[in-house]
Write a structure and sequence with these properties.
Layout (H helix, E strand, L loop, with lengths): L5 E4 L4 E4 L2 H14 L5 H23 L12 E6 L4 E6 L6 H8 L7 H10 L3 H11 L10 E9 L6 E6 L4 E7 L5 E8 L14 H12 L6 E15 L5 E14 L16 H12 L7 E7 L5 E7 L16 E5 L2 E7 L11 E6 L8 H6 L1 H24 L1 H21 L4 H4 L5 E3 L2 E6 L1 H7 L6 E6 L3 H5 L5 H5 L5 E3 L2 H6 L5 E2 L2 E5 L10 H28 L4 E6 L8 E4 L7 H9 L10 E5 L4 H12 L5 H16 L7 H15 L1
Parallel strand pairs: 3-9, 13-15, 18-19, 18-21, 22-24
Antiparallel strand pairs: 1-2, 2-7, 3-4, 4-8, 5-6, 5-8, 6-7, 9-10, 11-12, 12-15, 13-14, 16-17, 16-19, 20-21, 23-24
The structure holds adenosine-5'-diphosphate.
Length: 660
């Protein structure tokens, strides 16, 4: 039990300490987080609704978990005198261990990370935003209660567990008793203080209003008792005539929510706030969505989809085993929570629901993978989402860029994953580029700025913008005014391999193969010049190549250098050094070192002087030292590691002495 440990035990109740991070977070939630305290109810109802879904799911395979005459529901009970509000659900419930795991900690895996970030950036906005990403649902009830008692019984089990806490750092666990499967949470409310957003949550009308506002679409009835003044049974007056008796308070059970699925309502009748509430309900994200997309497919198969683009990436977006997917409903009944067959993985950040009339109610996860309808839906939904992203980009680029910042890396995965949609994806991608130090560019932006006669889209991959920017490979491009895209995300190395061209222009790495820049005439001139120089330096090149034959496959003269003496390049079809490094870092990949090409700058003094030494004495031992130094220079310039830093240091030390 890593999260909490028993501190002491009385006869039956045990006291546990909250995990330290949970305690800190709890403190923030209670004291400073939300001015809108009423949202605690939406959180508890959302949890209850999830628990009811789960009971229904589990009962599909184990009928004993739910008898046919059980009405799944959430009930709100109040006691004005005792100032308590109780939420009673007959959902899946929890056993003792589940209570410890789920209620004893907040957002288990993310809490540590969250607290670290909060420590670095402790302003209230950042706090709210970060908590939004992790969710602290259940604990929000401590905003309005100074003690919470939870009694719960897991479906299929007999014993109930009682959990209680005053939110002060510890909680107690005991045996409890509950006459039904599910969870009963009693909030011992603090004083009502309407000016500070603490309404009287024992008041029926207050509850009714909050439920209508935040939880109207919940699929299960949310019941509460309304006391109505009604005339009593008839009595006889003095003359013996029947008259209505004195009015009495009579309790009526009412359903507070309409339960109308939000996606079945015409979208122009649904307010943004209603969509936001529904989004929060399904996503457990505290932020409203960035954008909402309501879709209706008609034709051979009919279905509706309500999709949301989140504002912020969840912390587990890149975790390997994070579950993702849309909620799948069949005729308004939820049948799968994370259906990953409805969108490709590179759109896993999209949240929402799909409701189809044509799928069997008992469709299983395995069937989803092969189902023809689902595949058609995925294709259609993917196109719709990509087109919609394009539309946001055209209509409100700033908004699109905020989405790009959060999800750009995921979207790029689509280039290799979904070649069919490359045409839709490429225009909505953004890249760092030599054109602007801070702003990103689209490919269309690049095409517009291309020089006359330029036939290729130049790019360079690397570890970071700084590393790429100072790379010698860019020298000639910079001098001649050619823009180069900087592909510095780890995914870029992989995805660029599956893209060949955009609008008829090929992608070309400036770190690979040979380069020819300028007009046809300039190219021809450069070629002739290079041929001449190559002849002149030919013997020196051969000598250097011999000296470096273990690590370098060719030594040649370069057209891409203007100020540096040397750089290393890869052959057109070889891996870039960055890709080699990335592959080597990822576990288990045994990548043989690739031999590269060493390119020298014929205009550099170093080369002319080296040539003079070589001509004076072709076996001068200094050539050997310089061969190694040139190689190291090229490696350092592109950000690669030196194979033998100690040997390099020795050489530099020797050189330093010569200079004195
Ligand atoms: P979240 O709902 O975002 O996971 P919460 O703190 O609200 O975070 O709840 C933590 C967990 O406690 C839930 O994921 C669920 O497993 C469990 N839980 C909360 N409320 C209930 C309930 N009414 N019935 C069953 N389990 C519940």
């Amino acid at each position: 039990m890593p999260d909490s440990k028993p501190q002491n035990s009385s006869e039956s109740a045990e006291t546990f300490a909250f995990q330290a991070e949970t305690r800190q977070l709890l403190d923030i939630v209670i004291h400073s987080l939300y001015s809108n305290k009423e949202i605690f109810l939406r959180e508890l109802i959302s949890n209850a609704s999830d628990a009811l879904d789960r009971r229904r799911f589990e009962a599909l395979t184990d009928k004993t978990l739910l008898s046919e005459d059980t009405q799944l529901r959430i009930r709100l009970e109040t006691d004005t005198e005792a100032r308590t509000l109780t939420l009673d659900d007959n959902g899946i419930g929890m056993n003792r261990q589940e209570v410890i795991d789920n209620i004893g900690t907040i957002a288990k895996s993310g809490t540590r990370e969250l607290m670290d970030r909060l420590a670095k950036n402790p302003n209230p906005e950042a706090t709210a935003e970060l908590i939004g990403r992790f969710g602290v649902g259940f604990y929000s009830a401590f905003m309005v209660a100074d003690r919470i008692t939870l009694v719960t019984r897991r479906a299929g089990e007999e014993d109930a567990t009682r959990w209680e806490s005053t939110g002060d750092g510890t909680y107690s666990l005991d045996e409890g008793s509950l006459d039904h499967v599910g969870t009963r949470i009693t909030l011992h409310l603090t004083e009502a203080d309407p000016e500070n957003g603490i309404e009287d949550f024992t008041d029926f009308h207050v509850l009714e209003e909050i439920v209508k506002k935040h939880s109207d679409f919940v699929a299960y009835p949310i019941l509460a008792e309304e006391m109505r003044e009604e005339p009593g049974a008839e009595i006889l007056d003095a003359d013996g005539k029947p008259i209505p008796g004195p009015t009495q308070s009579v309790a009526h059970e009412v359903t507070l929510n309409s339960r109308i699925p939000i996606w079945t309502r015409p979208s122009d009748e649904v307010t943004e706030e209603e969509y936001a509430e529904f989004y929060r309900h399904i996503s457990h994200d505290w932020n409203p969505p960035l954008d909402t997309l309501s879709l209706r497919a008609e034709g051979r198969i009919e279905y509706r989809a309500l999709l949301f683009l989140p504002k912020k990436a969840p912390f587990d977006l890149f975790y390997r085993d994070t579950q993702w997917g849309l909620r799948l409903y069949v005729k308004r009944v939820l049948i799968m929570e994370n259906c990953d067959g409805l969108l490709p993985a590179y759109l896993r950040f999209v949240r929402g629901i799909v409701d189809s009339a044509d799928l069997p109610l008992n469709i299983s996860r395995e069937m989803v993978q092969q189902d023809r309808h689902i595949n058609q839906m995925r294709k259609w939904l993917t196109k719709k989402v990509l087109d919609h992203l394009g539309q946001i980009q055209r209509e409100d680029e700033e908004k699109y860029l905020s989405l790009w910042k959060e999800f750009g890396r995921v979207l790029k995965e689509g280039l290799s994953m979904d070649q069919e949609n490359q045409k839709r994806l490429l225009p909505i991608l953004y890249f760092a580029s030599s054109h602007d130090e801070t702003k990103l560019t689209t490919l269309d932006g690049y095409l517009e700025r291309m020089k006359e006669g330029q036939e290729e889209i130049f790019y360079l991959t690397g570890e970071s913008r700084t590393a790429v920017e100072s790379s010698p490979h860019l020298e000639a491009f910079r001098e001649k005014g050619y823009e180069v895209l900087y592909l510095v995300d780890p995914v870029d190395e992989i995805v660029i391999q599956s893209v060949f061209e955009y609008e008829g222009k090929r992608f070309k790495s400036v770190g690979k193969g040979s380069v020819e820049l300028g007009t046809e005439e300039e190219k021809k001139e450069a070629e002739e010049n290079l041929a001449e120089k190559s002849k002149e330096f030919s013997d020196l090149m051969t000598r250097l190549q011999k000296l470096l034959e273990d690590t370098v496959k060719e030594v040649r003269l370069s057209t891409r250098l203007t100020t540096s003496p040397v750089c290393l390049v890869a052959d057109e079809n070889d891996m870039s050094p960055n890709l080699e490094r990335l592959l080597r870092q990822s576990e288990g990949a045994d990548i043989p070192v690739q031999k590269r090409i060493l390119e020298l700058n014929p205009e550099h003094d170093l080369l002319t002087k080296l040539q003079a030494r070589f001509q004076a004495d072709p076996v001068d031992p200094i050539l050997e030292d310089y061969a190694q130094l040139l190689l190291a220079y090229g490696l350092i310039a592109e950000g690669s590691d030196l194979p033998n830093p100690a040997a390099y240091n020795k050489l530099v030390g020797k050189l330093m002495l010569q200079g004195l």
